[in-house]
């Protein structure tokens, strides 16, 4: 009888233990399922930053100054909050036009050299291209207090001899030609036609910066508001071109020029 009572008591004590153990096992299984499910889920991916839209830059280059229109052109550019690059003829830098050159540089525009005479025969046939650039460099240095290394060959670099190119490289000149010719001489007295011509050519530029050629004339002065608007509408920002620019453009396709 005693043995039966002991067995019954043992069974009664064992039942709560089994219940507790089963409950613990079931909870552990649920936790394991949750952990397994969680482990299968991919961690949230870090979103790559959105790429900024391609920054498109255009360069407006103005040749053959300084003329009587230079100060007004500088003022018109300033009003539009843009800057340009002026390629100057040394023999034109006289009298009041010296002050106009200073004002252009002080306003953040780039100043480049376009020879002393703009005379093709002297520059190319008589070999005066480098000497004239050196002479103009001295002139501008005395006027602006800095050495200018940016040059543009009158009528383009295609007229330069191999020796002239070599000398330009040795003197660390940066030569800039153009890839949009406004042909403003064809549209004399019609500034809106100049704007239209440039605007149509801008449509071809997707990977390379347009370098726009105009001349320092009254037509250019009158065209500036519409021209700046047209360039911006095409998605370009106008910037001045300085000699330390990483972007090279010359008809010779020479990365060292």
Automatic annotation (TrEMBL):
Boundaries of every NodB homology domain copy: 56-239
Superkingdom as given in the UniProt entry: Bacteria
Protein name: NodB homology domain-containing protein
Organism annotation: Listeria newyorkensis
Gene3D superfamilies noted in UniProt: Glycoside hydrolase/deacetylase
Pfam families, A to Z: Polysacc_deac_1
